[in-house]
Design a protein that fits this description.
By secondary structure, the chain is an alpha+beta fold. It is built from five helices and 18 strands. The chain starts with 5 loop residues before the first strand and ends with a strand.
Length: 295
């Protein structure tokens, strides 16, 4: 007998009436749009979208996808970068007043197919061990890293301890940081958003020689995109990426949908691009994630 399927429409902030960690299969529908409005025509639009989940990421599988462009005739190229991220590049010769990108993706999570696996060489990958401009430490972060080092924990225990420490040190608050705020700046402020907590955790991981990477994606039941960290640890003949959310002080679970991984936010902004014209564009976004079935 097939497991019973449950229809679970979900809106941001709504409480789930099923424990996603107790089911075998879950299917999610991601819908996201980005609309740019201009007061006058612009030319030579070149745009990059990093909004589609990867074809495979651990127990997460992309089953279907669709991109619609409205407001301009756009050429598009889809490719996978070396991290496995799905990159959409679009070009339009002219945009009269507005252009809108609409993305839909059907994603299935299959229990037992995860976590994400990497080659054993990932344990020594400089991209997972070296700081970037956004994750460079300062004296306060170095001091905290030394305190954590003295606890003599295993790599996975240390990752969990870093995650909880960052959560305790940061108060979630909008509009006090930006995409350019560094880990050191956010840590000194003690306030910020998920991106800042992820950058601080990455800074501490790098100081403690723990390979780790930034994750961009979605936390189901929460508005907007989300960010967390994957810590890479040895597992038999390979390596695995274990997700931790320092913004909430917990390992990530079935509520999290991975879209892209990189060294920091600058590697994986959802939308970016350029155009020719004096007009300044205004961006409007919309996003929803629904649990379609659970079994």
């Amino acid at each position: 007998m097939m497991p019973q399927q449950q229809q679970l429409p979900l809106s941001p902030g709504e409480t789930l009436d099923v424990d996603l960690d107790e089911v075998v299969r879950v299917t999610y529908l991601l819908e996201q749009s980005f609309r740019y409005d201009y007061p006058e025509p612009v030319r030579q639009l070149r745009h990059r979208l990093l909004v589609l989940p990867p074809i495979r990421h651990g127990d997460q599988h992309l089953r279907a996808r669709r991109l619609d462009v409205q407001g301009a005739a756009a050429r598009r190229v889809t490719r996978q970068d070396r991290r496995g991220n799905t990159v959409l590049r679009l070009q339009a010769d002219r945009v009269e007043r507005s252009v809108q990108f609409q993305v839909r993706a059907l994603v299935e999570r299959v229990v037992g197919d995860g976590p994400a696996r990497l080659p054993a060489a990932a344990m020594d990958d400089p991209l997972l061990l070296r700081p970037t401009r956004l994750t460079a430490p300062d004296a306060r972060l170095r001091e905290l890293a030394e305190e954590l080092r003295r606890e003599m924990l295993t790599p996975v225990e240390l990752a969990g301890r870093i995650c909880q420490t960052v959560h305790a040190a940061m108060t979630y608050e909008h509009d006090v940081t930006s995409i350019h705020t560094t880990a050191a700046e956010a840590f000194a402020l003690g306030r910020g958003v998920c991106q800042d907590s992820a950058h601080i955790m990455l800074a501490l991981c790098h100081l403690l020689a723990v390979p780790a990477r930034y994750v961009s994606g979605h936390l189901i039941g929460q508005g907007g995109t989300h960010a967390w960290v994957e810590v890479v640890t040895a597992h038999h003949e390979e390596a695995v990426a274990l997700p931790f959310d320092p913004c909430h002080g917990t390992p990530a679970n079935a509520r999290y949908l991975t879209v892209a991984t990189g060294r920091d936010y600058a590697d994986v902004p959802p939308t970016s691009g350029s155009y020719l014209g004096a007009a300044r564009g205004r961006l409007t976004t919309d996003r929803s994630v629904a649990v379609v079935t659970a079994a």
